[in-house]
Amino acid sequence: MFRYAVFAVLLITRICYAEQISPSPDNSVIKQIIDARLLGNYDLADQMAINIETQFPDLGTGYALHLGTINTRLSWDGSDTRWDTPVTETAKKLLALCKQDQPTRLLIARSKLDCGTAHFSLSFVAGLRGNLYQAGTQGSKAIDNFEQALSLNPDLNEAKLPLAMAYYYADNLPSFVKLFSAFLWFIPKGQSDKSLPYLKQVIDDSSLYSDSAKFVYSDMLLRARPEAAPEALLMLSQLAEKYPENPRIHLANIAAIIMYGNPKTAKSAIKNFFYYCSDEEPVFVFFGKIWQTFAVLGSGEKLEPELIEQILGQDPGNLPDWSFDWLTLTQGLILNYSGKQQQASIKFNQVLNSADSGPRDWISEQARRGLSQALAKPATTTND
Fold first, then answer.
1. Per-residue model confidence (pLDDT) at position 160
2. Which residues does the chain have with pLDDT short of 50?
3. Which of 235, 243, 290, 291 has the alpha carbon at shortest distance from 268?
4. Which of 2, 126, 176, 328 fits as disulfide partner to 135, beta carbons 3.0 to 4.6 Å?
5. Residue 243 domain-assigned (yes or no)
6. 215/12 Cα distance (integer angstroms)
7. Domain boundary among 221, 236, 270
């Protein structure tokens, strides 16, 4: 769940605070970093955060911003270990700063927020690497610090975003972890009932990080209350329009339309994705084609031979680990469409037997439905 969690982590942002002792980074620079991240320009966001670290080494702002961007990268491909060391080193520096004495209650609250940010990042990476003990202990420390920050300053909405995420994901652990949760004392207890209200407060605050909160809110809303899909779909479409250069926001919007709306209405969103993001990394473009396949099949239309060839020929080794089930499911649907029911059945069974994380209910339902159709239809020659 740590891996899936978090496009989400796009989203732990930091802004400079007025109570800080001068000199400090200008808020306009902080906004540029947040905007760069939301536009998908992570290299720029990273470099600007590192510049702040260099200019203001005794302030936590740059380190926290840097961690947020690295987390965002890892939330797409958690198997990318090249960011593990930067997370560890940056979190260590931030923890050294946030534990220093502060003269006022508001600055103490800010320090607690910084400590929580460092522990959250360490928990996230530990979870990606399968280290449940470190993920649990660091996650508990993150929650404790975020709660203390809000206790000291109830108006610190900036702390509500990561705390809402930490609560939600602590309550939505993978099934194998839940099975042994009574014995895993180091796993934090979540309060996910507070997650959506906290995020809504951040959104309504209309601050620098309200758009980040909208992304997380829409994701959690779809998972927790599918009947509220129209609200989530509206937010995602607005974000895709506001940040058209970010392929991940486009893909999240398209996925939500297909999974919780009507595949027939996804055509416009898919067209916008390819218009703005056709020059992006090949993996993003490929996922656009994955969702294009779902939309075409969901609309009862014909798949183009080129699209069929690209999906069936994709090497899973070039994709993030979490996406294997999506690829396998899509290949099964194409094989079924092409009259290759036996091969399709193998793909659907692979999905159903997978222990991978993700929106399992939806994926499994599609695989079961596809398997049922494959078993009910006699094998035919291909339609392609």
1. 94
2. 1-21, 175-187, 357, 381-384
3. 291
4. 126
5. no
6. 11
7. 221
Do both 70 and 211 map to the same domain? yes
Decide if 62 contacts 49 (C-beta within 8 A).
yes
Q: 156 with 109: CB under 8 angstroms?
A: yes
Does residue 238 belong to any structural domain of this protein?
A: no
Query: Could you count the other beta carbons within 10 Å of the beta carbon of residue 352?
Result: 15
Indicate if 169 and 284 belong to the same structural domain. no
Q: Which two tokens stand for residue 234?
A: 């509206």
Q: Are 195 and 215 in contact (CB under 8 A)?
A: no
Q: Would you mind telling me the total number of residues written for the chain in this entry?
A: 384
Contact 149, 156 (CB under 8 A): yes
pLDDT tens string 8-52: 444 444 443 434 445 788 889 999 999 999 999 999 999 999 999
359 within some domain: yes
In a domain, 332, yes or no: yes
Shared domain check, 157 and 73: yes
Structure tokens at 169: 């994901």
- Rounded to the nearest angstrom, the gap between the alpha carbon of residue 151 and the centroid of all alpha carbons in its chain is 27
What is the number of structural domains in the chain? 2
Report the distance separating Cα 226 and Cα 142, nearest Å.
29
Burial of 24 (0-12, 13-18, 19+ CB in 10 A): middle
Enclosing H/E stretch for 41 = none
Distance CA 131, CA 84 (A): 13
Residue 305 token pair = 């031979």
Q: What is the pTM of this model?
A: 0.85
